[in-house]
Each structure stands twice: as C-alpha cells, then as structure tokens.
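$ ./design --mode recover --in tokens.txt
reading tokens...
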C-alpha cells in the first residue's frame, strides 16, 4: 500500500519529468521531500494513473503549438555564423555548399557512421530531443525558445540525476569530487548551426 501523500508526490514528479525513469525519480523524490521512496512504489503509481509518455499525443500538441506561432523568416537573420558542421546528407549538398562558399562560412563534415567522433554531443542531442523538444518546447520564436532552453539547461545541470554520474546532477558531481572539468562555450543563439 502506498500512502496517499506519497502517491500525490510521485504523480507530480512524474508529470513534471515524464521522460525520467524510476531511478531518477527516486533520487529526485529524496532530494525534494527528504523522504525515501522505492522504485516499486514509483512503478505502481505510474501504472495506476497511466503516467506514461505518449509520443503520438505529444506530437499532436507540438503541431498545434507550431501552427499558432508566428514564423521567423531567413530574411530576418542578421547574426554571423562562424562555422558549420554537418553530416553528409546529400539532398541539398550542392546548393548548401554554394551558399556556404558565397557567405564565406567554412563547412566541416562528420565522418560517416562515426558518432563517436562527437559522442558527447550526440548523446546530449538525443536527451535534448527526448526531454525537451518532443515534450512540446519547440517554437520558431527565438526569444521564447532560448528562454525555455535556458530553463531546461539549468534543470539539466543543477537538478537532473545522470545515470553516468551515479545519479548525481553535474553540479553535485563536480562539488562532490572537486574535479575541475574542461569548459567550452556553448551558444543557444537562434542562428547557431548544429
């Protein structure tokens, strides 16, 4: 039997962090409520209230939001792109190469079938898609998108338990082990090439 208050807390956490698994929710529950919860209790609550991620419903919501927002046009672009790195997708390669050449933007290619060249970014991009974009946070409006993305990145670095860090957040891991990690700048500029 799961106490009602505990069940309500689990529901709230699961709704807020729909893509997090039982282990991550367990860590967050302890952190937020200073109370222990088991993975079994989390699973039973998820099952009881059908708190599963539904990609089809989410895609419909994302499309509705996208249709209601004002679209940005390329003609409004006024930020200089320094470098572009892409894979070797062939559909628009010729036109894309011509545009890069005309704009004097260096274009670098990833090696074919070598995600380990950029493994950290590839895994981060997957998490970004699953836990941010697919949950309806995309908008073509750069200011709104950057605000949402900044909030998500703060959550990602300061609160989200990471399995590879023994279910600590990156900041907790850094503080616990007093390691100096190499830092690199990142940009959430709407004009930044991915």
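writing sequence...
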């Amino acid at each position: 039997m799961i106490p009602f208050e505990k069940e309500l807390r689990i529901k709230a956490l699961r709704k807020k962090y729909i893509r997090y698994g039982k282990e991550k929710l367990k860590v967050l529950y302890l952190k937020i409520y200073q109370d222990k919860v088991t993975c079994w209790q989390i699973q039973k609550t998820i099952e009881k209230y059908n708190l599963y991620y539904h990609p089809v419903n989410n895609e419909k919501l994302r499309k509705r939001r996208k249709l209601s927002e004002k679209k940005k046009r390329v003609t409004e672009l006024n930020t200089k792109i320094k470098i572009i790195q892409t894979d070797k997708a062939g559909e628009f390669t010729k036109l894309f190469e011509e545009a890069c050449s005309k704009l004097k933007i260096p274009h670098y290619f990833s090696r074919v079938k070598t995600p380990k060249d950029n493994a950290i970014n590839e895994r981060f991009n997957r998490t970004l898609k699953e836990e941010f974009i697919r949950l309806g946070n995309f908008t073509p409006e750069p200011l709104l998108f950057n605000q949402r993305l900044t909030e998500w990145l703060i959550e990602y670095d300061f609160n989200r338990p990471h399995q590879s860090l023994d279910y600590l957040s990156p900041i907790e891991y850094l503080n616990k082990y007093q390691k100096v990690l190499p830092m690199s700048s990142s940009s959430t500029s709407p004009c930044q090439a991915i």
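exit 0
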